[in-house]
Amino acid sequence: MPRRSRWMHLVAGVVAGVTLGVFLKLCLRTSTRTSIQACSDAAKLYAEPDPLATIGLRADETVENSNRTLVFVGVMTAEQYLDSRARAVYETWGQDLPGRIAFFSSEVSRAPGLPLVPLRFVDDSYPPQKKSFLMLLYMYEKYGDRFEWFMRADDDVYVRGDKLGEFLRSVDSRKPQFIGQAGRGTAAERDALALEYNENFCMGGPGVLISRETLRRVAPHVKYCLKHLYTTHEDVELGRCVAKFAGVSCTWSYDVSSLPFHLCMHV
C-alpha cells in the first residue's frame, strides 16, 4: 500500500475514534450503581411533563362530572418571580379556585412544587406577547375540551375564587365571550393602538376571561396574530386577535373590575 494511502487511512481512523469517544461520553453515563444509561433515558428527564399531571387533573374528569373544571387559570410569570409572586399566588387564592391553575414562564424555568409550564422557545423579555399567545395555544391544545372557561392572569393579582365561580356560572361558555375591564388606552396613545371606533380591549392587569368557544376560534390563529402586531401592548394585541377571529370585543363587567372579584397584590 502506498505511504500516502496508509497515512490517509490512519487519519481517518483517528477522526472516527475521536468522534465515537465524544458520542459515548455524551450519550452514556455511569450511574451510582455503575450501570449504563443511554441518551434517550437522560432526555426523558427534560421531556415535556404530562399536562394533566401538572395541574392534578384526572383523565376521567370532565366539565360534566367534576366541580373543579369550571375554569382554568393561566398565570403569566417569569423565572425571577417563581419563588415569590408565583408561589404566593399558588399557596393563597390558587387553592380556592373552582378549577385548576398553572404558571407559564420561559423555557428555562424550573420550580419544584409549582404547576409550571415552561413554554418552549419563550423567554422572559418584555413585552410578553409571545408568552401570552403561546400560553393560549397551550391551553387550547392541552385543556381545550376539559374546562368551560379560561383566564389569563398576571402574578400580582388576587382572585376571589368563590366570586369568580358565582359569576362564571351565570354566563354561557358555549358562546364567544371575552370578559374583563374594557379599555381603549390613553388619549395620547390611542392612535398608536390602531383601534377602530367600535373596538376596545380587555386590560390585562385585572385578568381576562375567555370562554372555551372564544378560545376554540382564536387559538389556531395565534401564530398569525404574533406575526401581525401593531403595538407593544400585549393586551391590545390579544383583543385585536379575539376581535378578528372570534368576532367579539371586550365585554365590560363590573364583577370583573370590582374588589369582590380581584385585589391587586404587591409581593
From TrEMBL:
UniProt entry keywords in alphabetical sequence: Glycosyltransferase, Membrane, Signal-anchor, Transferase, Transmembrane, Transmembrane helix
Membrane topology: Single-pass type II membrane protein
Places the protein is found: Membrane
Pfam families xref list: Fringe
Source organism superkingdom: Eukaryota
Domain Fringe-like glycosyltransferase: 69-253
Protein name: Fringe-like glycosyltransferase domain-containing protein
Organism: Iphiclides podalirius (scarce swallowtail)
